Every structure is written in structure tokens, then in C-alpha cells.
TrEMBL record:
Residues 21-40 have a biased composition (Low complexity). Keywords: Signal. It comes from the Bacteria. This is M3 family oligoendopeptidase. Residues 21-41, 307-329 are annotated as: Disordered. It comes from Corallococcus aberystwythensis.
Amino acid sequence: MSAPTFRLRFLPLVAALGCATTSPSTAPTPPDTASASAPSVPVSKEALTALKQELVKQHGEAQRARIERGVDQVAALWRPEDGDLAAFAREQFLPTGPKLDATFTRLEGLFEQFDGHMNELGRELQWFTDLDLGPLLPVEPLLAAYDPSSNVTSDLFQAKPGFVVLLNFPLTTLAERVKEGPSWTRRQWAEARLGSRFNRRVPAAIEQKVSQAIADANLYVAEYNVWMHHLVDAKGQRLFPQGLRLISHWNLRDELKADYTDPQGLAKQRTIVQVMERIVTQTIPAAVIDNPRVDWDPFTNKVTVAPPESVEANAPQRPAKADAAPEPDTRYARLLATFQASRKVDPYSPVAPTRIARAFELDRGLPEERVRTLLTQLLESPLVPRVAKLIETRLGRPLEPQDLWYPGFRPGSKVPEAQLDALTRKRYPTADAFARDIPRILQGLGFTREKADVLASYIRVDASRGAGHAQQALRRGDFPRLRTRVEKGGMDYKGYNIAVHELGHNVEQVFSLYQVDHTLLSGVPNNAFTEALAFVFQARDLELLGLGQPDAASERERVLNDFWQAWEIAGVALVDMATWHWMYEHPDATPAQLRDAVAGLSRDVWNRYYAPVLGRKDSPVLGIYSHMISYPLYLPDYPLGHLIAFQIEEHLKQHGPLGAEFERMATFGSVTPDEWMRHATGAPVSAEALLRATEAAL
């Protein structure tokens, strides 16, 4: 799976403000800044009651429910400095009719422009940190950390349009959307999304601190490379080819998968797992990170100066010193900074007073406990040891920790990665070459030639500094961007696999912006859905290279592959969730304490669900995923995405072709997850389809 795609919606404009429920005892106190006073209600209950009665008398009994709800919504976020609430309500309340309709249309068009242009400004500020355009200027991280949208929501409250929205349109709860949503019109759904943009009033300075923390974490992850030729064993032997530079965790994991076809694969895999565990525990020497001028034995942790003949010609300038001092918990300092910045948002979000709550209730649209139930349903399935036994039979040995990422069910998985690399490098020497091939790829996926050409005309392709990601457009007239890593010799298979995944995101983004009926509903319910649609593309990457066509045998393999991947990432998601709960329970923790906690939580989940299947106890490897650092609380979207993707695939088997069905699904917009799924496949989000199919495949 690739780096995630945040749906950067202007709902307070920073997708980095997601969150989770805590008990009152762990609720944070307001931050100590002059601009960060907690919201207060400057009007008495009696005065509000009188105001409501006055408005009902003026506009009629039929408007009572709207008046009472709107006045309460405004009062919850109104501050003394905002002035006379009653005078504002008398002037700005609009009864049902042409003027309310015109206001809705005006705001919908305006917010599309706000979202789109702020998104474009953010993209420009992050241009050089996101793309592989050479060494960074010292100013680039500062530019990438600046969020031009951080003041907008605060300004719209101060200037009062935010209160116009709250006075006239509903601020719904998740429970309301789930219960009443199936009977809503599309206009009602759009109104609900309009109201949700103003569900909290966070000072701009706090928004900016969150953006700064996220940007710092993203840059840290984007530059976290390991030069594999410089990993040596106790005899000084090198297992990996010269020039192989892998980003953590994405490329490390993908190299591990590729090594199943290598005669030296088992030794390579054990080495990669050791590297991963040292990253998680922060026992990795700081000197070896993105440094090809030193050699490192990850088992003994010994660092030596690399012989000159072994150093790559394109090696960056790094100190060539045999320094084994560990990385100083930088990984967890980055995560802790994001937590502390996010915690300052909590007092200003009464509807979801922690980042965990915001992540599940507001951003994901699914209660945390329902997500946890889906994850444990996968992890505790009696099918797991049966699939594991099949893998063990194929490998001819007991399973080990690296088999968490066993890829052998995928079509073409027995093709050596060197052969795949040669094929993709020849076909895609540059990012532009991939861009030119998009129409052919889309036709291969089942889109008509005309539709493929139109879709390709909207998508721009860039060479990524990190592993890769898709960046959406948020206004009609802008173009989504596909980013993937393109090394100097061309796009290797890892980069191509990610590019096909990101293309799935981009196609969804074109449909869900340009063809949705209300731009307030653009997008999909949450990131799990865009991941699911991207998985549908990614699963066909080898077919698009001319390697393997679907048949009954490959269909069985596809089911088992989907099950094993979902099982793998479900535990990773639990670690991410547990980490955020731990931080809320220990708000004053140091990076070292957080390091020990994450390693401990990773081991706990491993020992409960994975050690009985994969052999070794106490591995912290589940904590390796870089999303935990740069995309907080994103990881639960991946197992959800696998479940959703499987339901989509099952539907496509009966109701294809892929192109037309993909378009129908992607244009439905940002409603609740179950409502979207019922429209797409006829059933709500569930693990049952995958479990039933796996049982049948076995």
C-alpha cells in the first residue's frame, strides 16, 4: 500500500485534525495562550428562549425546529467579542424558500473555490519537499510547514459567514446521519456537509501548530532511507545490490515481499526484519540513516566506514564515520509533537473532544468500537491458522515474522523482481512516460477509450521524493497529482506498483469532483474508501504489464491474498489506535517513554495475534509503519479499505465492467460509509464477505 491520501477538505481545512474519545479524567486543559480562550456562551438561557420565540413569531411555527436548532448551534460557539447574537439572528435567519436556496448555492460555489485555491497554495508550498527535485534549500521545510488555510475558518467565524451557516443549516451528529441519512435527499446530505465545516472553532495559531507538526513529520519520513548495499553480515558480506536505496517502511516491506523469489531471499528478509525492529525501538544508529558512506551489521549493530569502491557514484554527502550512537528517539519526538499540537485543539471541539474522536466520529464516520470489532473479527478468525498452514506448505518451512507480508497468492508473484524491474524501467524511464501510458492502462482496466482519454487529461504525474502519494484537486479546473518514486534508472516495480495504486486514487478524485451533483459532497465517505478503490486498481498491476490473466485458480488466490493482507494490517491499526490512547493517558510523556510504549504495545498485539501463527514472540515489528508518524490515526483505514475493496470486487464479478461500475460508485459522494456501500454493492461495510469467500477458497 502506498502513502495515504488525505481528503484535505476545508472542514476546518486541515485533515490533520482528526481524533478519539477520552474519559473526563484525561480530557486536556485549554492551552495557555492569549488567543486560546475556550468558547463561552455570552447569552443566558432565558435570552435565547426569548430570541427563539421572537423568530418563531416572525417566521411562523413551521420554522420552529430550524430556528431552535440554529440558535443553539450559533450560541455554542459565539463569544462575547462577536457582538449581539440576537441582532445577528434577526438579520441572518432565513426561512425555507428562495432566499435560503440562493444562499446555499452561493456558499457551495464559494467553498469550492476556497477549498480548491487553498489546496493549490498548499501544494505549491510543499512542492520541493514532496518532489524529487534535488537537495532542499534551507527555507523549504519552513515553507512546507506553513498552512495558508489555517486562518480561514477562524476568519469566517469572526466575519460571521460561519455563523450564518450554523444558524440556517443543520450541524448533524453521526447518529443522526446514520439513522436519518437513508431517507435524505441529496440536498439534505449537502446541507449536512455544509454544517459540518463549522463544527468547531479553533484559533488559527493552533491550526498552524498542527500543520507545522505534520509537515515536520512528513519530511522526516520522506527522507528516511536505508542504503541496502551497505547492510553487511558478521563476515562483511553484502546481500543487496549496489545503489538500492529503500524508504522506510514502504520500500523495505516491498523488498521483503520481492525476496521470496530470490535464492538468498530468506537471509535478506531476516535482515530487513531486523532493520525494521531497530527503527521501531530506535536502536538504529543515526549514522546509517540515508548514508551510503558507512556499512552496518543490523544484528550486532556494528558500524564501519564503507570501502571507497563500495560507495555509490550518486551518493549524497554524508559523514563517513563509524559512529554507532542510536537515533535519539526522533521518530517518537515527531509523533509526540503532533499529539501535543492536536491536544490543543481539543477544548475547541465540543462535538469530538479528542483527536481519536475526531478521527472516527467526524473524519471516518464510524464509531471506534465498530472499527475495533471489525479488526478483531479478522484477527481472531479461525481461518487464520488454516491460511497460515497453506503458506507454510508452499514455503516448505515454519513461518517467521517476515511472512506477515507473504505475497505468494498474488498472480505473477513467482516472477523475480529483477525481471519486473527491468520491464518497468524500460517502459517508464521517467514520470512523463507513465503519464503518457495512462490512457492505455485505463482501457486495460475496463474504461472505454473515450473515457480513458478524458480521465488521463485531468491527471498530472510527478516524481516523488518519498514513496508516493496522490494529491487531489478540490475545485473544478484544477488537476489531481500522481506522485511515485522514479529512480535514476527509471521506475522500478515498487514505484510502478505504487503508481497504479495512486492512479486509482486519482481516477476516483476526478469522478468524485467533476461528476458529483453537489461539490459539498465531493470525495468519498473517508480515506478507507479511496484506499479501497485504489486497491481495485493495484490488484491488477501485473495484468497491465501482460503478466497473468484472471481465471478460477487466480480468483481463489486473490481471495486468500486479500484475507492475508487484511489480517496483516489489522494488527498494525490496533497498535496505532492503542498508541493514541496511551498518549492521552500520559500527556506529559517524553519521546523515550513513548518509544518504549509503542514497542510494548506492538509486542502485546504481536504476541496475542501473530506469534501463535508466525513463531517468534515479542517482535515489535508492527510499529514500523511510517503512517503512525506522518499520518496519525490513518492506519485503520487500510484494513477497512481491504474489506471495502473486497466487497467491491465481489460486486464487480457480478455487475462489471470495472470502468462503468467504478464511475457509478465514485460519483456518489461523501455520505456515511454504510450509505455509500449500500449504493455501491447493496450491503453495508462488513467483514462477512471476505470471511465467507476465504472459507470457500480453503
